[in-house]
Amino acid sequence: MRIKEFLIQSLRNLEPNIPDKFAQQVSRFINELQGISFESNASDKDAGKELLLLLQKEKEDPDFSVDVELEVFGLVIMKLGIKSSKEVTAEKHALQRLLCSTRKVKDKKTELIVLCLLHLLQNYCKFCKPELSEETCAAELACSCPASPSEMGSQTSTSEQDSDFSSELCFLEFHPRGAAIGTKDSVSGSCHPLTPPQEFVCPISLQIMSDPVIISSGQTYERVCIEKWFEEGHDTCPKTQQKLTHLVVTPNYCVKGLITSWCERYSFPLPRAPSPMPSPITSSVVAFSECVTEKAYLPHSDSTPLSSCEVATIGSPRFVPDGVIKRLGMQNGFPVSHRTSGSVMNTLNDYAKVLCRSPKPSFRCEQLKAVEDIRRLCRDNSDTRIYIGDAGLIPALVHFLNVAFRFDDDDAMEISCLALLNVAINNCRNKAEIVNVGAVSLLLKILGSEAPLSVREAAIAVFLTVSCLDENKPTLGSSGVIPHLISHLDSGTARGVKDALTTLFNLSIFPGNHACLLKEGMIQKINKLLTLGDLELTEKCITILHNLMLLEETHRVIAETDGCLSVLADVFDTGTPKEKDLIVGIFLTLSKAGADYTRLMLNEGVIPSLVMLSVNGTMRGREKAQKLLQHFREQRQKDTVLHDVVEVLCSSKSSKAEDLLGKSAKALLRKKTGTGLSLAIFRKSKSFSFPRC
Description:
Layout: H1 2-14, H2 20-34, H3 42-60, H4 66-80, H5 85-104, H6 108-127, H7 135-144, H8 149-154, H9 160-172, H10 184-189, E1 212-214, E2 220-222, H11 223-231, E3 250-251, H12 253-265, H13 286-293, H14 322-331, H15 341-355, H16 361-379, H17 382-390, H18 393-406, H19 410-424, H20 428-436, H21 439-447, H22 453-466, H23 473-477, H24 481-491, H25 494-508, H26 514-519, H27 522-532, H28 535-548, H29 552-560, H30 564-574, H31 577-593, H32 595-603, H33 607-616, H34 619-651, H35 655-673
Antiparallel strand pairs: 1-2, 1-3
Helix pairs in contact: 1-2, 3-4, 5-6, 5-7, 6-7, 6-9, 14-15, 15-18, 16-17, 16-19, 18-19, 19-22, 21-22, 22-25, 24-25, 25-28, 27-28, 27-30, 28-31, 30-31, 31-32, 31-34, 33-34, 34-35
InterPro entries: ARM-like, ARM-type_fold, ARM_PUB, Armadillo, RING-Ubox_PUB, Ubox_domain, Znf_RING/FYVE/PHD
Domain U-box: 195-269
Protein name: RING-type E3 ubiquitin transferase
């Protein structure tokens, strides 16, 4: 009815401001609207009657059952078609607006009825419709709605609003009884326990957080859980999968205070810090860990002791839930008979024992099978890599690789390298572990030996994987692997050359490795590879060269390497957009290093390609190309002036010509270059030339 009156009033206000033709139509519409009567739906009428009866019964019967109250109110909700938390929130906001309007007109009775309806809606959401009491319902209603009279009777409130509400309901003389959610008995006795807001729950443990912390992605987690996540080698946010800029955690005191207040308000047990959670698929091989930690012999008569340089220290064993181990076994190809938790644990325990046995011929087949199983299990499953890495099998693999190298067992060396490769893929912790247990020196021995090409390339593949970790780049660069990798570019297979070049690319990212790369002839190798025209290697070669431009010595080596600038100019003409962006960056750095480098580039005829890039290239490429063209323009102006002065000196032998040169030529030079010139500049120089382009 009020909507109808508001619409009529709005149309009347509009009538004087519109043309007469439309004003007449509006007038007729107003007359028709006044004759229309709006009726409520039958379901709305029934819901209203049920609600009135409910309020009347509560007023007449102080011992009215809480269950009956919630059941009746549930029928009212169903008849009104309220099914989702969004609709409940809308009803709550409507009741709050109605409450404000009734307070303005000082309609005390209507105000108290609205308060009672808000209370009923709150209780219904929490105890009869748990699916509505999540984020929107439970959090908002609990914070915005006043407490019920029964709550006031069961706990003392310090809120002035609660005390006012209690007195107002007493004035109205009816007593609705929602369950006393402020008491422990009500929480334990209710069939639907109180659901905490989603913001209070850790996404990893799915429990209320006792020590919430914030990570660099902005998400909040339980401290114990997120630290466990980081310990497993992850550097991403578990919820958003965003790569983290750092692994520092910051206490979230705001959320912790809200959790404490919420628990005290609803007498909810305060959360306790969870025990260190096991990784979904992490464990430890107990027997092998004990042997290594205690530096004891393995329980075999023919076993050999493990030296500290061959095996790293392994942490304490952790328990893996039975269901997780069964799932791991089913996913990763364990035999059907080995898919129980005990069998899987025993299998991994046996792997460690077998790999650390003495190298007797009778054990060779068994050891090779164990390594092959590890390689196969880690090949396609990142979870298994975490599990096997934490189980202590990386030190065992390195130990077995060392034994295989001492006995020149090519098959064992190749399989061991491939197993280490698979264990390290997409796992930062395992990459660091391989380097820390001393595998680098062992792999270098393999590269420097007369082992078959397939074995050496398997070792290079391990270097490729571990070089992806930034923390390993300085260690690998100073280990002496760079000469072996550069040498392999001449003798390896296509796949081996690609792996070696990619490893060199990874190492070139760290500036501390630039001097070693330059010393070992990296630029000459790049020049040779670019000359071959292999498209798969071109981008990597140019990127390495671009990284090395940070070193001033690189500029001289590029200029002195026969054909290097020429092949770069060719790639600049026909390369991909990314390659062109990298090459124009190289040219720009060279041009800033000196005029001689600028003249060398001009002699290669790069200006047409630069003009094309400045128009059609990427934004970054266009910017660099325009800067380089401007630099070339200034350099050519200087060279033109120098050329004119030299011609004057060569053609004139009289003092008059010299006087003319002293006045006009020097003035021209000052105008073009801004400085005076000494005659020493015209001395014969091998690097001096006049470009024609």
